[in-house]
Amino acid sequence: MTGCMTLPPAAPIIYLTLVGTGEPLLRMEKRLFCAAGGLGIRLEVEIRKDVEALGNSLQQSLAVLHDGKLIFNGLHRIEEVESWLKNLK
After folding, report:
1. Domain-by-domain residue ranges, the chain?
2. Residue 44 phi/psi, 5° resolution?
3. Could you tell me the pTM of the whole model?
4. Average pLDDT, the chain
5. CA 58 to CA 11: how far, in whole Å?
6. Domain 13-88, what fold?
7. How many CA atoms lie within 13 A of 66 on its CB side?
8. Are strands 63-66 and 42-48 parallel, antiparallel or unpaired?
């Protein structure tokens, strides 16, 4: 998925794993890319649809992982995503 704006090649990159399926996965993916684009951050997102392979705690919902740690569980507002990305930057 392309971001909401074009970023320069030198923009910092954050690697995330997005776990889930269906419309919630697509909505969260768009929110992640739009929030990152607005902050001048590039994302590399691995999408995992095999939720059960990642453990029982993630089986029932959408999840965003960074360095193997759970960041978001469920669909979050873009403002929350932007706030988290600002703190990470």
Report:
1. 13-88
2. -115, 115
3. 0.82
4. 84
5. 31
6. Glutaredoxin (3.40.30)
7. 12
8. unpaired
